[in-house]
UniProtKB/TrEMBL annotation:
This is Pyrroline-5-carboxylate reductase. It comes from Microbacterium ulmi. Coiled coil: none annotated. Residues 10-109 form the Pyrroline-5-carboxylate reductase catalytic N-terminal domain. Catalyzes the reduction of 1-pyrroline-5-carboxylate (PCA) to L-proline. It is found in: Cytoplasm.
Length: 280
């Protein structure tokens, strides 16, 4: 589906932080020409979204049938409620969905089988795993198709998520592994910035100076990587002059076995993702 192709009516059920970020991307893109309906539990949260262009924002506390009304009128339904609430929501909207309506999960740990078991074979299901940079249009979203989702269904879902970043299509079996890299990855980057800031403070810089140096270095390095398209290892080599200060620092980091640290960290995240999926 070309990026310029408009999307069918979209419903976001539970437009919290992630659903709200995707909503912002849809509005910015202009692809949602048939409108977006967003539901939230409270009137206060609904009021925050009501000012967005082409968005109908519904508060469930004043409009109890909002989820079924929104789902019944949509061509694509994003399920953004908390994972524990998903089965009840699916049972609530199942009879309202029109055949062929695409249902996309934003809920971590809830399988496609759970969705398909409740919604039945007439509803194509996809499972997604966006990350928090969706808020600024820089997400990485993993997208896995269910058993009845067609290539056209996947193309529509892909176009939707591309309004807030990049998309990787993958089998559902890899969703948890993806979550340990792109899902948790922003936290790893923020931790590195925290630690580099502490190191700068330890060398006598004020906290504002330390934050500026650490944060802008990461922002600038990421922008350089994006602008050049170079392999990060090559960009690192260009900074690392033989016999220089950076080479000495990199040797310390290599000695600390960062490769092992990151492998162990992502393995631990994957183990926990599987525990959560199993209800542990």
């Amino acid at each position: 589906m070309p990026a310029t192709t408009s999307l069918p009516p979209v419903a976001i059920l539970g437009a919290g932080s992630m659903g709200g970020a995707i909503l912002q991307g849809l509005v910015r893109s202009g692809l949602a020409v048939d409108g977006v309906t967003a539901t939230n539990r409270t009137a206060a949260k609904a009021a925050e979204l009501a000012q967005l262009r082409d968005v109908t924002s519904i508060a469930l506390e004043t409009h109890p049938t909002g989820n079924t009304d929104a789902a019944g009128a949509a061509g694509v339904v994003l399920v953004g409620v908390k994972p524990a609430m998903v089965p009840d929501l699916l049972r609530e909207i199942a009879s309202a969905l029109r055949p062929g309506t695409i249902v996309v999960s934003l809920a971590a740990g809830v399988t496609i089988a759970t969705f398909e078991g409740i919604l039945g074979p007439g509803i194509p299901v996809l499972r997604s795993m966006p990350n928090t940079p969706a808020v600024v249009g820089k997400a990485v979203t993993g997208l896995a198709a269910g058993s009845t989702a067609t290539a056209a269904d996947v193309a529509i879902a892909r176009a939707l998520f591309e309004t807030c970043g990049a998309v990787i299509e993958l089998p559902e079996s890899k969703i948890d592994a993806l979550s340990t890299i792109s899902g948790s990855g922003p936290a790893y980057v923020f931790l590195l910035i925290e630690e580099l800031t502490k190191a700068a403070i330890g060398k006598g810089f004020s906290e504002p100076e330390a934050r500026l140096m650490a944060e802008q270095t990461f922002i600038g390095a990421a922008a350089l990587l994006d602008a050049t398209g170079e392999d990060p290892a090559e960009l690192r080599r260009r900074v690392t002059s033989p016999g220089g200060t950076t080479e000495r620092a990199i040797s310390v980091l290599h000695a600390a076995r960062l490769d092992v640290v990151f492998e162990s960290a992502t393995d631990a995240a994957l183990a926990r993702a599987r525990e959560l999926a199993a209800g542990a």
